[in-house]
Design brief:
Blueprint lengths: L13 H7 L6 E4 L6 H14 L8 E4 L3 H14 L8 E3 L1 H11 L11 E3 L1 H14 L9 H13 L12 H20 L1 E3 H14 L1 H10 L2 E4 L7 H11 L16 E6 L15 H8 L4 E3 L9 H11 L20 E8 H17 L7 E5 L5 H10 L4 E3 L9 H14 L4 H8 L8 H14 L3 H4 L5 H20 L5 H12 L1 H7 L4 H15 L8 H6 L2 H10 L24 E2 L2 H13 L11 E5 L8 E6 L16 H15 L2 E15 L2 E4 L14 E3 L24 H8 L6 H10 L17 E4 L3 E9 L6 E6 L3 E6 L6 E2 L2
Parallel strand pairs: 1-7, 1-8, 2-3, 2-6, 4-5, 6-7, 9-15, 9-17, 10-13, 10-14, 11-13, 14-15
Antiparallel strand pairs: 12-21, 15-16, 18-19, 18-22, 19-20, 20-21
Helix pairs in contact: 1-2, 2-3, 4-8, 5-6, 8-9, 8-10, 12-26, 13-14, 15-16, 15-19, 20-22
The structure holds adenosine-5'-triphosphate and magnesium ion.
Length: about 800
């Protein structure tokens, strides 16, 4: 069967066809976004297999993400009856992992070696610092992490690094200690995966020759973002350069097809070298350089926007990109009054898109920084819209958040052993692993919770752990009568988490996330006047109920609802706001996460979106300082990389593209008033459509502080805006501790804080806090014999004690 008749080759333009059917030689495809680079790469693999040029085992294909690898295998599986699992398709790290698992003994690793992510790596370095008394001021751990990563990318082991001065000498020493520790523990970091597999190939002739012989075709997508070591690894496998043959006996035949776009190089900060493209052409003697100029993804409004934007960059290899799809939809631009309003608007647009028949997984939200996702996640969660967050942890799963939640859970339940173990020695308070083992043994022996076993612990261990528990008890007492927000602020303070992360030079992100936690608590309000019935409904029905009710005027639908179940019919006992908040956190971190394969809205950073495409794309937070990011907008290279990022973001959209920015944004614990991004000015006006409504609704008309719509200006949000605290954490702490106990609140029943009351079951107690009104009114009461309880006043039979 002649190849040109192959159905594989239908729907390829002449340039693509030429690339797919290239002779077995090295080649480079340099082309813009959406021009079919990845399609060509996939189709070439299929073509090579179909024509019998190579067997599945002879293919090595490198994708940028695991998701892309999966997609490629799915497509190949659909094109051909081959066992795709047998093919080596994956990311550099994934492939190296596979390689090292296959040759773990030669690589001198345990079979079940574990992989350290960036965070684990940092903690591992820090553990070393403690053990060897290394000065974190002189050699910040994060800097060491960069140093180690950099050395590994250059292929350098400690003994190969040149020690020009004392400082470098010390760093090399630490690098060596770190390596020893990793080896002892049987763990490898990301850089190590690459380097160790590179070294194994380099130093083991039979292994190298085996793979050089085996991989007849090596195909690499997103080549512009490869780093130095990855390039060397490819060279090694392809047999180009010093290790191509041993004694001239073996001539490797691996062909490399590299595919990339210099305008989409967005990982320079992580060591990516666009220069690898030019090196590749030179060192591999590339004769075939193919350009693809037709974009198949988007209409000209989107494409013109991308082209116009990127033309502001000076360092470019130069390519053309056109589309024959016609203008398509205009690029929609929306201005919100607040991040809340932005998220709410987005959810409404998504609902509309879904009604129009778009699948949820064809809708993506892109943001510049992970911190932006929380507000969006909350809005989606409240709208019962399934969503999936790619790359980066979901907000409530982040370590610092989990650490803080552990303390809060202990306030609610001292017998929560998981939280106990998480909090007891974090931040470190000198409680050793030995002591904790002892405690666990004790608890196991008597079948009780860890906190209950503490009394049986003697010596220093008992004293230390006892003090920790006593501290929690004191905090529980102190936070009585405090608002949820203040409880969290006090807990952060008491736990020393703030001090801990503040002392950590690299803890700024974590502090910001902890500030976000306070924001989250603050906006987590009970909806007064709705009654328990409303909040007891499932969330989507609740959303319905709220929209239909006149009482929803002035309510921000995006705010998490305090989902308090009906109180105990007999005693009136009800969930505390803290417990409700913790439930919310657990739910949001787990249950709402769309299952694999479920049709869900896709949330990710722009970095993570590379290579992907969606029917509809929202690029959010288009504000100065956010996008372009404040860390990069003041130097030219940085700004050009931001612009390439924006180019990547724009070119993800097939049909519809939204760009939004907000007048105010609660970020990093602070309300910011951001200017709209300079990138708007670099877009062609005729491609844009401004869709911000003039009248109330979501923004436009009401402006700052006006209007009672749920745009965020009125209602509970204004409280939130006023309750801001700066990034100055000292101020924040002072404000927190100085926060007055809500005093003199009166309920219809006439209860007051500090008043004594009598409950038929719990006896006499003192009111410590009051919340809500009408049907929803609740009181926190401290009963000396039964502890602190939250009671629903409409149910609980309380009588004032004079
Ligand atoms: P990026 O730079 O974003 O990674 P890309 O160059 O890899 O983009 P692809 O993802 O391969 O581009 O293709 C973009 C879209 O265009 C895909 O949906 C693909 O199926 C489609 N496409 C590519 N070539 C053709 C063609 N000749 N005819 C029709 N559609 C095509
Ligand atoms: Mg691609």
């Amino acid at each position: 069967e002649p190849v040109s008749n192959s159905s594989l080759l239908h729907n390829l333009n002449p340039e693509q066809l030429a690339a797919v059917t290239l002779p077995a030689e090295h080649a480079l495809i340099l082309a813009g976004a959406g021009s079919g680079k990845t399609r060509v790469l996939t189709t070439r693999i299929a073509w090579l297999l179909q024509t019998g040029e190579v067997s599945p085992g002879g293919i090595l294909a490198v994708t940028f993400t695991n998701k892309a690898a999966k997609e490629m295998m799915t497509r190949l599986g659909a094109m051909l009856p081959v066992n795709v699992r047998g093919m080596w398709i994956g990311t550099f790290h994934g492939l190296c992992n596979r390689f090292l698992r296959a040759h773990y003994k030669l690589a001198n690793l345990p079979q079940a070696f574990q992989i350290l992510d960036t965070q684990d790596q940092l903690s591992s370095i820090k553990r070393l610092y403690k053990q060897f008394n290394i000065d974190d001021e002189r050699f910040p751990a994060k800097q060491m992490q960069w140093f180690i990563g950099g050395c590994k990318e250059d292929g350098l082991r400690p003994n190969a690094v040149v020690a020009r001065d004392d400082e470098t000498r010390k760093k090399i020493e630490i690098y060596q200690l770190y390596e020893d520790q990793c080896q002892r523990e049987g763990v490898v970091d990301f850089g190590e995966l690459m380097l160790r597999s590179y070294e194994l190939l380099r130093d083991n002739d039979p292994i190298r020759e085996h793979y050089q012989r085996r991989f007849r075709h090596i195909l690499i997508d997103e080549f512009q973002d490869t780093n130095k070591l990855q390039y060397a690894w490819v060279k090694m496998l392809a047999g180009t350069g010093a290790h191509s043959s041993v004694d001239g006996a073996f001539q490797p035949t691996g062909c490399v097809l590299a595919v990339g776009d210099d305008d989409q190089s967005i990982y320079a900060f992580r060591g990516a070298r666009v220069g690898n493209m030019a090196d590749f052409v030179r060192e591999f003697g590339v004769r075939h350089q193919i350009k693809l100029e037709e974009n198949y993804r988007s209409g000209s409004n989107i494409l013109d926007s991308a082209n116009a934007l990127i033309s502001h960059n000076s360092k470019r290899l130069g390519k053309n990109l056109r589309t024959s799809q016609g203008p398509g939809e205009p690029v929609r631009v929306f201005e919100a009054t607040s991040d809340f309003a932005e998220a709410q608007w987005m959810v409404d647009e998504m609902k509309q898109l879904v009604r129009e028949g778009h699948e949820r997984k064809e809708i993506a939200v892109l943001y510049r920084s992970n911190a932006q996702s929380r507000v969006i996640e909350t809005a989606l969660f409240n709208a019962s819209m399934p969503y999936k967050v790619y790359g980066g942890l979901r907000f409530f799963e982040r370590a610092e958040i989990k650490n803080a939640l552990a303390y809060l859970r202990l306030l609610e339940n001292p017998r929560d052993d998981t939280s106990f173990m998480r909090a007891v020695n974090f931040p470190p308070r000198g409680i050793g692993a030995r002591s904790l083992e002892q405690l666990q043994d004790l608890a196991r022996a008597s079948g009780c919770a860890l906190s209950d076993a503490v009394s049986g612990l003697s010596g220093k261990a008992g004293t230390n752990i006892g003090a920790f528990l006593a501290g929690i008890d004191v905090l529980r007492e102190q936070t009585q009568g405090m608002s949820l927000r203040d409880t969290i602020v006090a807990t952060l303070e008491h736990s020393n988490l703030l001090t801990h992360y503040k002392a950590d030079r690299e803890g700024a992100d974590r502090l910001e996330n902890l500030a976000e936690l306070v924001n989250a608590a603050e906006s987590f309000v009970s909806i007064e006047g709705f009654g328990r019935d409303a909040v007891a409904l499932p969330v989507d029905e609740l959303g319905q109920a709220l929209t239909q009710s006149p009482a929803s005027q002035g309510l921000d639908l995006n705010q998490p609802v305090l989902d308090i179940p009906a109180p105990d019919a007999e005693t009136g006992e009800t969930l505390s706001p803290l417990a409700a908040f913790l439930t919310h956190a657990a739910l949001e971190a787990g249950d709402n996460q769309a299952q694999a394969g479920q049709d869900a809205i896709q949330l990710m950073t722009v970095h993570a979106s590379k290579g992907l495409e969606f029917d509809a794309v929202f690029i959010t937070g288009m504000e100065e300082g956010l996008f372009p990011h404040e860390n990069s907008m003041n130097d030219r290279d940085g700004l050009e990389e931001e612009r390439r990022l924006m180019y990547v973001a724009i070119t993800r959209a097939r049909k519809r593209l939204y760009l939004s920015h907000s007048q105010t944004r609660m970020l990093h614990g602070q309300t910011r008033y951001n200017l709209k991004s300079r990138f708007f000015e670099e877009l062609p006006e005729e491609a844009l459509k401004w869709i911000t409504p003039k009248q109330s609704g979501f923004g436009g008309g009401s402006g700052f502080g006006g209007g009672a719509s749920y745009s965020g200006a009125g209602g509970p949000y204004s409280e939130r805006a006023r309750g801001q605290f700066g990034t100055d954490y000292t101020k924040y702490n002072t404000a927190a501790t100085a926060a007055p106990v809500p005093a003199q609140k009166e309920t219809p029943g006439g209860l007051k804080v500090k008043q004594k009351v009598f409950h038929p079951k719990f006896g006499e107690g003192t009111v410590t806090a009051l919340e809500g009104t009408g049907e929803d009114a609740r009181a926190q009461i401290n009963f000396p014999r039964h502890g602190v309880k939250w009671l629903a006043l409409s149910v609980a039979k309380l009588t004032p004690v004079p």
